[in-house]
Amino acid sequence: MNDRLTVEVHLGHDELAASLRADVRHGLGSRPYSLPPKWFYDAAGSELFDQITTLAEYYPTEAERAALTGCAAEVARTTGVGTVVELGSGSSDKTRVLLDAFDRAGQLRRYVPFDVSESALRAAGDGLLARYPDLRVHGLVGDFDRHLGRLPDDGNRLLAFLGGTIGNYPPVPRARLLGQMAAALRTGEWLLLGTDLVKDPIRLVAAYDDPGGVTAAFNLNVLRVVNRELGADFDVDSFRHVARWDAGSEWIEMRLRAERAMTVRVPAIGLEVPFAPGDEVLTEVSAKFRRDGITGELTDAGFEVVGWWTDPAGDFALSLSRRVA
Predict the structure, then answer these.
(1) Cβ proximity of 56 and 37 under 8 Å
(2) Cβ contact 113:137 at 8 Å
(3) In this structure, is residue 279 part of a structural domain?
(4) Coil, strand, or helix at residue 186?
């Protein structure tokens, strides 16, 4: 056991199972059908997403890495903090770019990864402790929609929310989450936010509907999760992955479309879900942003934007904001 690694668990198996039941009951119990994207990420789904990030069509991962490489030293210098908190940390792969910059500046003391997967936190933590001999890792297993108040609050902190994950939230839930982030920080503390930017819809759709079908498999995997965890009888082969650009909302929608009439049973919650051919389940929105829009949202939540960087192609942005009173 490494005394530099601490993991707090605020989301146990029973609570996670209850959350899945509630989400499926809400999302499939009335129309229009939906399932939250957080249920993509079981072991198989996480592996598929890792494959997606390597696809030529899927630009966000490398675009954000390029933006982070370009700004990390300035972020470290501007914030001067010793504690980096990351929401949805996963493998903490890209985060190493940021942590390296803080380490080079001689100010890296603690990293606080926040994720739903305890195994992912522990694996990432072990790797980071080997990389940074003076670092302490304080992991939190939880749902950041509910457990942001559990963040350790000692020291001056930078909260990082990368990957464009903020785009999975429609405007009202997004405003609520940004407000919760502001409430979790003290005046003068920092938020580093990754946002995918509006661009050619052809490129956007291609990033979420690759010709090799990896994204389709990732999307369909959510039905396998519901089958396995709740005893449902989704015929996965009878659904088709759909990705489309909604110009009015400026987001990509991922959906699963029924190819035939069927009734799906979900015994764990006593639910029967009728499908006609063409009925769809919304599984994800991925909003794309403009600088003025996201700056305004951050301002409304209680932040002052003090830095803005993109990758060389201008596909993905990182904004640095300070919590104001």
Answers:
(1) no
(2) yes
(3) yes
(4) coil
SS (H, E, C) 197-254: ECCCHHHHHHHCCCCCCHHHHHHHHHHHHHHHHHCCCCCHHHEEEEEEEECCCCEEEE
Predicted local distance difference test score (pLDDT) of residue 312 = 98
CA dist., res. 236 & res. 238, Å (int): 5
Counting the structural domains of the chain, the total is 2
Which tens digits make up the pLDDT trace of 7-18? 999 888 898 899
Count Cβ atoms below 10 Å from residue 153 Cβ, excluding itself: 12
Residue written as token pair 């501007």: 78
Percent of the chain topping pLDDT 90: 86
28 three-state secondary structure:
helix
How many beta carbons lie within 10 A of that of residue 278, not counting itself? 10
- Nearest C-alpha neighbor of 181 from the set 210, 161, 201: 161
Please indicate, yes or no, whether residues 241 and 153 belong to a single structural domain of this protein.
no
Q: Is the peptide bond before 32 cis (omega within 30 degrees of 0)?
A: yes
Residue 277 sits in which domain range? 31-56+215-287
Cβ–Cβ under 8 Å, residues 88 and 114: yes
Using a 10 angstrom Cβ sphere, with 0-12 exposed, 13-18 middle and 19 or more buried, the burial of residue 106 is exposed
